[in-house]
Amino acid sequence: MATERSDDRSTLEAARKRWEPRFERLRSGWSRFTEHRMGVVGLFIFVVYVLWALFPGVFAPHSTQWVAYLGEPPFDARLSAEQIETLPHPPAFGDPFFAPLGTNSDGQGVLTLLIYSAYNAMYIGLAAGLLSTLVGVPLGLISGFYGDTWIDETIQRFVDIMYGLPFLPFLIVLVAIRGMSTTNIIIGIAVTSWLNNCIVIRGETLSLKERSYVESAKVAGASDTRIIFRHIMPNVLPLSFVYLAQDAAGAILAQASLAYLGLADFTSLSWGIMLRNIQNSGYVFQAWWWLIPPGLALMLLAAAFYFIGFSMEDVTNPQQ
């Protein structure tokens, strides 16, 4: 029994010694991150949107089926002609109904649509940003490490070809072939957004591979894969975080632009579709409470990604 307890203590002590430095690095990184006010503000905004996306029913004042004057579904009556004439209705706080950001021309609450649209924006931004990073960063590392070889030439010529691919026509063709869905929008954005990642990471890798610690790893017999992903990749992570944030923000704005142009999945809720609907309804200059919130939501989420990305660059920079 005493031997078993001693073995358990030894195991716990070994685990503590192994994990304690990692937790210390996390604490140190968080401390440096909180020194950046932009990063903290961006993280706060990001968390708010994540909560909206995951728990919209908690924050939205109504369900997506709610219509002004009729209350909660199921509806047993139709709007009167006089009620229809008052739509879109400005913000109301209980008289004749509760809609803090007013309604659209169909009587739906703007705040409700705004909150329920956060999921679509977060999904597209994170998915497209991660896809472009997972493609661009490894290709940039490989291309830079094998610079001036056939591997580098093949990757860079493919990048040149992709740069000649116009984004909007490509997306129109993709939608025509595969249908207008959120997944296809993400694929279309990711296919054209990884190129900058690849080129910038390649340039940084060309410089890093000449450093003395990389030469020492080669002399020690480390494989190319270990050198690339163990010795070089940690030093390009700061740039990777910046471009991940840029790609995520760009994807959100691109999806909103495509929705405004009619190239989006109109069965899902999104801020771009809200802007398109107000433009189609002709209330751009009359219903400010319908126009400003989705535009402001897009701006804040894109800014949050940028703030977090640039703060993470400092936190993950080995030179810091």
From TrEMBL:
Which InterPro entries does the record match to this protein?
A: BP-dependent_transpt_permease, MetI-like, MetI-like_sf, OppC_N
The Gene Ontology biological process terms listed for this entry are: transmembrane transport
> Which SUPFAM superfamilies would you find in this protein's record?
MetI-like
Q: Where in the cell is it found?
A: Cell membrane
User: How is it placed in the membrane, per its record?
Assistant: Multi-pass membrane protein
Reading the lineage from the top rank, the first entry is Archaea
Provide GO CC annotations from the record: plasma membrane
Keyword Cytoplasm on this protein? no
Membrane-crossing residues?
40-60, 121-146, 158-177, 183-201, 227-246, 252-275, 287-308
Family designation: Belongs to the binding-protein-dependent transport system permease family.
The name of this protein is Binding-protein-dependent transport systems inner membrane component
- Recite the lineage of the species: Archaea, Methanobacteriati, Methanobacteriota, Stenosarchaea group, Halobacteria
